Each structure stands twice: as C-alpha cells, then as structure tokens.
Amino acid sequence: MSLSRRDLLHGAAGAVTLGTTSGWTSTGNGQTAPVTAPPRTVVLTATVSGTGSYTRLPFQVPTGTTRIDVRMTKSEPTAALGIGLFDARGDDYQSPGFRGIYGEERSQFFVSTAAASEAFMPGPMPAGQWTVLVPVFRAPIPTRVTVEVTMSFGPQGAPFRPGPKPGVVLDEPGWYRGDLHCHTTASSDAWSSGSAMTPAQWADACRKAGLDFVAMTDHNVVSQNYFLARDAGVDVLLMPGEEMTNWFHGHATVSGIDIGQWLDWRQTPLGLPLPSGHARIRDFLRVAEGMGAYVAAAHPAGAHLAWRFTADAETDPASRVAGWEVWTGPWQPDDEASLATWDHMLGRGWRVNANGGSDLHGVVNDGGTAVGLPTTVVYADRLATRDVVAALKAGRSFITRTPDGVEIYLSAARPGQAVGVGGTVYGAPGDPVTVTAQVRRGGGMRLVLISGGTPVFTRPLAGDDETVQTVVPIPAAGGYVRAEVRGIPRPNPVNPKASQGDMEALTNPVRLVVGDPPPGYVAAVPPVPSQVGPRRTSATPGR
C-alpha cells in the first residue's frame, strides 16, 4: 500500500530516523533480513495541532521480525493523542492489518507472533510497510510527536490461538437479563480508572447482580473477546463485542461478533468530505450486519458523545442503526432526550429498537454507574449469543433500572392475532387493539402507555403485581404502542452526577400496521415467567 505525502504529513511535518543497520543484508525484494539479530529501532516524528484528525507514520518492517515495541512521547503535555498500529496489509478502512489502538490514556505497547499488549492483536508479522496511526483528539498548540519503534528478531514462538467462542449456557427459552454496554481493562480509559474489570471479573459481577449475559464492548478493540468461554464459566454468557468509538462523530455498541472479528471506527457523516481511509456509516453497518451483530447507537444524546449520523439516516435507510441506547447508566436528562428522539423515529416507521447499558468503566466511580444499571431483559430461545442477538433485533425486550427492578410484560391482541413486545398487530385504521401490560414490582409507581410520542393511558399502580388492559386504535397511517413505568426522581445532592430521574422501566413497542397479517402469521405471546426477578437466587433483593 502506498501513501501520499499528504497522507504522511496530515497536518504535520514528518521525519524518520533509522537506527543501526550493521549485520543486515538485502533480500533482493526491497526488504532486509538479519544476518545477526540485534534489535532495530526507527524513530518517527510529526508535528500535530488542532482536533479531529489522524496522523499516519509509516515504517518498514523487515523479514524475520517477531516482535515490535512502540512508545510515543509528546512535547506538549496538554495534548490529547491516541496511538494505534496497522501491519503490512494496510491501513485502509476495515483493513485486516489492524492490530490495536489506545486512546489518550496509554502510549506504549508491543505486538509479536505469540503475544501482545492488552487491546492489541498477536499474530503473523508480515514484512512490508506498517503504519502507526495517531488520532489527534486535542492539540491546542503545535505538538511534536515522537514514536520510537523497536523491531526484534528471533524464534517465532508458538502461534497465538484464541479460545473457543462462547456456547449455549441454557438451552431453553426464557427472559434473560443483561448489560449491553461494558468496558474491561482493554479500553484504555477504563484501564486508567484503576478499577476496571477483566472479562472473568465481569462474569463474577453478573453472578452477584443477577445478570445472565453481558456484551464486552471495549473501545475499538477486540482482544477482550479471545477467551470469553473460559472466563465466563458455565453459568454466564459473555458475548463478544466492541464499542465502535468514532471519537469525533459518535459511538455504537456492537454485540455478537465472532472472536477475532473487528469493526473500524473511521466514519464521516454525510455533508463532510470523506478523508482517505474513512467510510460512511452505511458501510460500517453493512459490515456489522454481515457479521450477524446487533448495533446500537450509544448514549446518542450524550453531549460530545452524541450520535451525529442523523443526516445519513434521514436520506438512507441503510444508514439507520438497528438499536438505540435510550438508557445509559443512571437515568438523566440526556436519556430523556434519547427517548424523545427514538419516539420520533418510531413515529416515522423506522425499525429501530431500544436497549440500555451501564457503560461501566470502573467499579469505583463518581457517576453512580454500576453493573446492570440499567438492565436489558430479552426473551430469547436460548441463553446463547445468536439467540440473544436475534431477540434484540426483534425488539423482544424491555429495560429496567436494575437487575431486580420493575418488570413490564407487554402484549397486544385483535381477533385472531396476539403478540408480545416487539410484535406487530394488523388491521384497518381505527380498529381497536387490546393492549395488556403486566407490571411487577411497580407498587406506588405509575404505568404510562405511549403512542405516537404521546401518553395515551396512565394508571397508578397500587400493588407489586398488576395487570392492566386498555384499547388503542390503529392510527390511520399505522403506528405503535409502548409502555413505561415511572416512579420518583432519585436526586443525589452530594454528587449530582449520580442523580437518577424517575424512569423505572420501559418496553420496546408493539407496532400497529394498516393491512392484513402476512401469510403464515402465527399468534404467539412469550409467557410471563413464574419467578419474579432474576433467575439467580444469589442476586441481592432490593438493590
């Protein structure tokens, strides 16, 4: 792969300094191979400034290299820079040459044939042009970047082999509880918290909290997925995942990729020029769909983390995510904004489902973030990755504040039709649809049914197990009905960042469609579980 001078000097002046070359000989193909095997060091330099750009620093890797160590320093301490690595297969969008990346919190790593630093991928070390990629998050004044690359030679060592992918934890249908937005020590910002968990620690946390599954959504990296079957034990599902972290235009959680699969983060919204090595969001979604994954825009109204691909979605249905993380951590005003945006999408007939996730980076934090806060509860055929992903894509789920929080089992029916949450009821405009909501653990709260973004029914809940019915007509152009339970706000005067609003639980919609049921329609409503709360008896009541 060739790089232009513009690519190399992206907003910077670049230089390469070579270390000693004694004991080296030409291979005749432009590469060099060691006669003896002293390490070889190259020093890559650039000057960066501004925000929202990437600097590429290419270097040559000779045949016989078995390990590369990389260390970055900067002249300006206040500059925020990341660092990543692509091998000789190139640094184009979605390149198989991607080996890993850190945010601003970590600045040195290694890769080798048999091992690598956390968040980086071990494996073959092909000769040719490799590239150090430096994301420039913030450099208010020109900053000199120095990257020292040391290449070592020697025995290849045993090739790296990841463990088996997670299998079936429970081979039976049921309502399973999970957290779809989680970080391990493989995310550099989580690592820097000092209290991030490994996948095995996440599995233990699931057992204590009453969760059945969790998606390992680290920032742009996938090394956390290598040994999930081992780390989970026999009673927890750790799903391979990634958080696509487009540092400048929004994030998305990706649940259900295979071990070793990776998704690029370099997307540019419509209306902006498309830089080299970047793509549009539809390209990312196409790749993720090909992997069978569930993709949800993460904290989509979260200030500088907001999802900025709405113009793409307006003009191109292929640019619409399958999921919308309406609830991230403690319920706060940005979640209300995400919910309103989701209602608007539903009102326009978009097939976008809601989910929640804690976005927990470290168990010690000042934001009130905790395991399973909130919890996404899905009705899946089995407790297995593919089945959980299928349930998420179908919208067979609701979100509740904690693993043992309020439960809402929503269903709807017309003559000859009956569906649960995520299903569709058909009929003529104005036809009545009987909507049923069974609410558990909602005593003293209020049930609200929403259609077209507007409350159409509200009922105070006196007891902890109430079943409420009402009739909602099918709108002239079709629509939906969903349910939510609200209680009272939970302010934290000592730490306002940990305050929580009044949302206790909310469901995905039942869609109301004008027309006849499709051929082969089968009436089916998932059964309400006989047991209240998590299936794990070790879960602490009243969390």
Write up this protein:
- With 543 residues, this protein is mostly beta strands.
- Helices cover 12% and strands 37% of the residues.
- It is built from eight helices and 30 strands.
- The chain has helices spanning 5-8, 188-193, 199-209, 228-232, 281-290, 310-315, 333-347, 385-394, and strands at 15-18, 24-26, 32-34, 40-50, 53-61, 65-74, 80-81, 83-86, 98-102, 108-112, 128-153, 174-182, 213-216, 237-246, 250-255, 294-298, 323-328, 353-357, 375-380, 397-400, 407-414, 417-420, 424-427, 432-440, 446-451, 454-460, 465-473, 479-486, 503-507, 510-514.
- The chain has a 15-stranded mixed beta sheet that branches. Strands 1, 4, 5, 6, 7, 8, 9, 10 and 11 form a nine-stranded antiparallel beta sheet that branches.
- A hairpin with a 2-residue loop joins strand 21 and strand 22.
- It is elongated.
Topology:
Elements: H1 5-8, E1 15-18, E2 24-26, E3 32-34, E4 40-50, E5 53-61, E6 65-74, E7 80-81, E8 83-86, E9 98-102, E10 108-112, E11 128-153, E12 174-182, H2 188-193, H3 199-209, E13 213-216, H4 228-232, E14 237-246, E15 250-255, H5 281-290, E16 294-298, H6 310-315, E17 323-328, H7 333-347, E18 353-357, E19 375-380, H8 385-394, E20 397-400, E21 407-414, E22 417-420, E23 424-427, E24 432-440, E25 446-451, E26 454-460, E27 465-473, E28 479-486, E29 503-507, E30 510-514
Parallel strand pairs: 12-13, 13-14, 16-17, 17-18, 23-30
Antiparallel strand pairs: 1-4, 2-3, 4-11, 5-11, 6-10, 6-11, 7-11, 8-9, 8-11, 12-19, 14-15, 15-16, 19-20, 20-29, 21-22, 21-24, 24-27, 25-26, 25-28, 28-29, 28-30
